[in-house]
Amino acid sequence: MGYPQYRPRRMRKSALLRSLVRETHLSVSDLIYPLFVSDGRDVREEIPSMPGNFHFSVDNLIKEAKEVEQLGIPAILLFGLAAKKDELGSEGYDEQGIIQEAVRAIKKERLNLVIITDVCLCQYTSDGHCGIVKTKEPEFEIDNDQTLKILAKIALSHAHAGADIVAPSAMMDGQVRAIREVLDKHHLSDIAIMAYAAKYASSFYGPFREAAHCPPQFGDRRSYQMDCANVEEALREVKLDIEEGADIVMVKPALAYLDVIYRVKSQFHYPLAAYNVSGEFSMIKAAAGRGWLEEKQAILEVLTSIKRAGADIILTYFAKEVARWLKA
Ligand code: PBG
N or C: the chain end with fewer CB closer than 10 Å? Predict the structure, then answer.
């Protein structure tokens, strides 16, 4: 209907013409680069399961942040490796905690870089869970409401240190509201919240758990992370997070959840981030390392498809490589 009825044909396209009719444009300005901060001095330790990614002490993190800024990547997401863990994850909200130190140090450099911090307990709790464990047995249970208080404290301390965006990733009910309320109460309404709204229980987090030293010591995260079979539930989670005050909502992981990205974007038309997680990174690296995939093409294809599905922002460990390619 409406189209002229010529002989059916496809336009043969030169490279230039292809770029003219291209629908999706991946850009450096879409990317957020996740970084891991650890204690100590002059630490720059490669994470074995994530080649090209490192644990940085704060001094080296600053060097890295400068490089990221130079590449035109607009934002970094910081994960902290706690020096000491306890049942309440108290280093998470310690003013002298690793993230607080890191954020203050980067802020001092006045870089043109948005600083986002991960707000969760799993790197700080001795049992490696994202919330406070209420009971281990017979039924494993997380104390949602006690966890909210701690998450709010962590977010507040990150904001005081100078974070621009806090990113709650614990998947506790009401976490966005709890954080929004505490920030507003302390006149920090400018601090944005990027909510891990639809975070699935996924095997693709494997390399990260090693990188962040946070595998759960018992039980698993299925009681608070989503079942990969569900998409309606993701829409409900996103709706709640928007109502609670999220500025950006996130779907995580990305690649096995392109339909979720698509539906969230179509339904809410809200700033949407997708997390191209550690396992998605490592599987391309591993296959490319064996010559089974053409690395650059595979990476660009994956990231473009995440954007095509509807993501505005992509969190990816490929950010630096991609920035170099897109610049060239
Ligand atoms: C935990 C957290 C995880 C990731 C980000 N934050 C791991 C998990 O839920 O087990 C995964 C990121 C990645 O795999 O790249 N708060």
Answer: N
Is 68:321 a contact under the CB 8 Å cutoff? no
Residue 199 a catalytic site member: yes
| 193 vs 281: CA distance, rounded Å | 25
Whose CA is closest to 116, among 250, 303, 305? 250
Q: Tell whether ligand 1 has an atom less than 6 A from the beta carbon of residue 130.
A: yes
Q: Can you list the domains of the chain with their CATH numbers? A: 22-327 (3.20.20.70)
Amino acid identity, residue 3?
Answer: Y
pLDDT digits (tens, 9 = 90+) for 299-323: 999 999 999 999 999 999 999 999 9
Alpha helical stretches, state H, 135-274: 144-161, 175-185, 206-211, 232-244, 258-268
Q: Which residue has the least CA distance to atom 2 on ligand 1?
A: 169
Give the model confidence (pLDDT) of 219-244 as tens digits. 777 777 899 999 999 999 999 999 99
User: From ligand 1's centre to the CA of 34, what distance in Å?
Assistant: 11
Identify which of 53, 158, 184 has the alpha carbon closest to the alpha carbon of residue 101. 158
- CA distances in angstroms from 279 to 66, 120, 163, 257, listed in the order given: 26, 20, 27, 14
Residue 247: count other Cβ atoms within 10 Å of its Cβ: 16
Confirm if 254 and 305 have CB atoms less than 8 A apart. Answer: no
Average pLDDT on 94-105 reads: 93
